[in-house]
Design brief:
mainly alpha, 579 residues
Length: 579
C-alpha cells in the first residue's frame, strides 16, 4: 500500500470517528449566553411584533400593518404628550444635575460642618421608589398637605404647585439628584489634586479654584449623569401619574398606562407602538451614554501618587452653607419621608388638629383586615428574596464568562447583558405580558409572581453587573492561571477560586437587587393579577381608591424594610451601596 493510500485511509478513519462531546465549560458558557439572550429578547420581540399587527397578537386573523404608527401620530393630543415628556425630562435633568453637583462639591470637597451626615441623607431618595417619594411629597406639600395648609392659614396661599410640570420636575429632580452626586463624587476621587494645589499656590481663592479647576474636571461626569437622568425622566411613571394626571398633564409613560392597564379595552397596537417609540429614544440615549463614558477617560487626570485632595476652606461661609444644606435636606428628604411615616400612625394629618388627638394604629389594622395587603407584602418579600438570589447567580455567571473566560462570544454577551439599560420598566412589563400570552405553555405562569421574578431579573441585570464587575476586574488573573496549571478547567477554577473571592461583591449585589426588586413597580403594573400583587401595585390601587391612610402604612412598611437592609449592609456587612 502506498504512503498516499495509507494517509487517505487514516484520514477517512479519523473522519468516521464520532466527534467529542462539548466539554463542561462550553456547555455552561453557551447555555448561559442562550439563557441571557432569551430572557432579554423575549419581552422585546413581541412588543415590536405587536406594533405591526392590526389587532392583539393573541387574537386570530392578525394582519401586518404600518397603520399603528400613523394612527399614533394622529392621536388627539399626542404631540402635546411628546412635548410634556420632553419638558418634564429636561427640567428634571437641570434640577437633578444642579443639586447633585453642588452637593458633591459641598459635602465631598469642603470643610463644611456635618458634610458627611448631609451626604448620607442626600442619598436616601435613591433607596426609595419614586412612588413612595411622590406620596411623601403629596402628604407634606400637596393641596391638602400639612405644610401647605399651615402656610395657607398664615399667608392665604402656598407659593408652590406640584400639579404642574415644574412641580413634578422638582420632585423628580430631587429624587434623581443622588445619581449626579454619585458620579461627581466618583470622578472627584480619581482626579489629580495637584492641579488644585497649583491653583492655590498661584494665589487663586476657593471660589476661583472651584470654578476654573474642579468643575471643569467634573464636566465628563456631569455630562454622563445628565444623559442618565434625562433617560430616567423619560421613564418615570409615579410622579406624572400622581401629580400630572389629575391636572390633565400626560407624558409618554402615563399615556401607556392609561391606554393599557387603566383602559377597559386596551388598544394593544397603539400601546405597543408607543412603547417601541420610547424604546428607540432610550436606546439612542444609552448609546450616547456609552460615547460619553468613553470620552470621560480622556479628561480624567490621574496623579502619580495616591494623594488625598485637601478640602476647600469655606471660612465665613461654613455655617451659612451648613444651614442652607440643613434646610434643603429637611425640606426634601426628612419632611416628605417623616410626614408619610407620621400619616401612617394618624387618622388625619392637619395643622388644624393636634396630632395627639388623631394618633392611631388603625391604618395598620386595616392592612390586616384585607388579604390583598398582607399578600402583597409577602409577595414582595418572596420576589425580592428569590429573585435576588436568582439574579445574583445569573449576574455572577455572566460576569465570570465575560471577564474571566476565553468564551468566543464574551464581548457580544457583555453587550446583550447591558442592553436592558435601554429598556424602560413600562416597556419590559408590556413585553413580558405579550411574551407569556404568545408562547404556548407559559400562560399558567402569567398570573403568578414568577413572571415578576423573570421580568425583574431581566430588567436589572445591568444593576447587578455594576456591583460585581468592578471587584472582578480588580482581582489578579494569577489565581486563575495557578489553578489552570494544576489541571483545573475553567468552571472548577471559577467555582473554587473566583466565586469565593467574589463573595463580598455578590453580597452587595444581592442586597442592591433585593432593595431594587422590593421597590419596583413600573414593570409589575402590566403583569400582576389577583394573587400576584406586590407592594408597588397595591400602593397604586389604594391611591386610586383614595385610601391615604393605607397608602401611608404600606409605604411605611416598605421604607422600614429598605431602611433595615441599608443599615445592615452598611453597619454589619460593610457593604457600600450606590455611593
Amino acid at each position: 500500500m502506498s504512503l498516499d493510500a495509507s494517509s487517505a485511509l487514516g484520514s477517512s478513519a479519523a473522519d468516521a470517528l464520532p466527534k467529542p462531546l462539548p466539554g463542561r465549560d462550553t456547555v455552561i458558557q453557551y447555555g448561559m449566553a442562550l439563557l441571557t439572550i432569551v430572557l432579554i429578547a423575549a419581552p422585546l420581540l413581541p412588543v415590536l411584533y405587536q406594533s405591526f399587527l392590526d389587532r392583539a397578537l393573541y387574537d386570530s386573523g392578525q394582519q401586518l400593518t404600518l397603520g399603528n404608527f400613523g394612527r399614533l401620530l394622529r392621536t388627539d393630543g399626542f404631540a402635546l404628550v411628546i412635548w410634556n415628556t420632553f419638558v418634564f425630562a429636561t427640567l428634571t435633568t437641570v434640577i437633578s444635575q444642579t443639586l447633585g453637583t453642588l452637593a458633591a462639591v459641598l459635602f465631598g470637597r469642603t470643610d463644611m460642618p456635618f458634610a458627611r451626615l448631609f451626604g448620607e441623607l442626600f442619598l436616601w431618595p435613591i433607596y426609595l421608589s419614586a412612588l413612595v417619594l411622590s406620596f411623601g411629597w403629596y402628604t407634606i406639600y400637596g393641596p391638602a398637605g400639612y405644610l401647605t395648609l399651615l402656610v395657607q392659614s398664615i399667608f392665604d396661599g402656598a407659593p408652590w404647585n406640584l400639579y404642574s410640570l415644574p412641580g413634578m420636575a422638582m420632585i423628580a429632580g430631587v429624587s434623581q439628584a443622588p445619581v449626579a452626586y454619585i458620579y461627581c463624587m466618583s470622578s472627584a476621587s480619581i482626579t489629580d489634586p495637584t492641579l488644585e494645589e497649583a491653583a492655590r499656590v498661584t494665589g487663586a481663592g476657593t471660589l476661583r479654584t472651584l470654578w476654573r479647576i474642579t468643575l471643569p474636571l467634573l464636566m465628563p461626569a456631569i455630562a454622563y449623569s445628565a444623559v442618565l437622568n434625562f433617560t430616567v425622566g423619560l421613564e418615570l411613571l409615579a410622579i406624572p401619574l400622581v401629580f400630572g394626571d389629575p391636572a390633565g398633564i400626560t407624558v409618554l409613560t402615563t399615556f401607556l398606562y392609561n391606554n393599557g392597564v387603566a383602559s377597559a379595552r386596551p388598544d394593544h397596537g397603539l400601546v405597543a407602538t408607543a412603547a417601541v417609540l420610547m424604546l428607540a429614544v432610550v436606546c439612542v440615549l444609552v448609546w450616547l451614554q456609552g460615547r460619553l463614558l468613553g470620552n470621560t477617560r480622556r479628561f480624567v487626570t490621574l496623579g502619580g501618587k495616591a494623594t488625598r485632595p485637601r478640602p476647600f476652606r469655606l471660612n465665613n461661609l461654613r455655617w451659612p452653607l451648613c444651614i442652607v444644606s440643613a434646610i434643603y435636606i429637611t425640606a426634601t428628604v426628612v419632611m416628605p419621608i417623616g410626614a408619610l411615616l407620621l400619616r401612617a400612625f394618624t387618622s388625619l394629618l392637619s395643622p388644624m388638629v393636634p396630632i395627639s388627638e388623631v394618633l392611631t394604629l388603625g391604618n395598620f389594622a386595616n392592612i390586616l383586615e384585607y388579604p390583598v395587603y398582607p399578600r402583597s407584602i409577602w409577595n414582595s418579600l418572596i420576589v425580592s428574596s428569590v429573585g435576588g438570589v436568582v439574579a445574583t447567580a445569573m449576574v455572577a455567571l455572566i460576569a465570570i464568562i465575560v471577564l474571566r473566560s476565553d468564551f468566543r462570544w464574551r464581548g457580544a454577551l457583555h453587550y446583550v447583558a447591558l442592553f436592558p439599560r435601554a429598556v424602560p420598566g413600562v416597556v419590559a412589563g408590556i413585553g413580558f405580558f405579550y411574551a407569556f400570552a404568545l408562547v404556548p405553555g407559559l400562560g399558567g405562569l402569567r398570573n403568578t409572581i414568577w413572571i415578576l421574578v423573570a421580568a425583574f431579573t431581566m430588567h436589572f441585570i445591568p444593576v447587578g453587573l455594576g456591583a460585581v464587575a468592578p471587584m472582578l476586574l480588580q482581582m489578579s488573573p494569577d489565581f486563575d492561571r495557578a489553578a489552570r496549571t494544576q489541571g483545573a478547567d475553567w468552571w472548577t477554577t471559577s467555582r473554587r477560586i473566583v466565586l469565593p473571592l467574589l463573595r463580598p461583591a455578590l453580597v452587595a449585589c444581592f442586597i442592591i437587587l433585593f432593595i431594587t426588586f422590593f421597590k419596583e413597580y413600573t414593570t409589575a403594573i402590566f403583569l400582576f393579577a389577583p394573587g400576584s400583587e406586590v407592594i408597588g401595585t397595591t400602593l397604586l390601587q389604594a391611591w386610586t381608591q383614595g385610601e391615604v391612610g393605607l397608602v401611608s402604612a404600606l409605604a411605611t412598611i416598605q421604607i422600614l424594610v429598605i431602611g433595615v437592609c441599608v443599615t445592615a449592609a452598611r453597619t454589619f456587612l460593610g457593604v457600600k451601596l450606590y455611593g
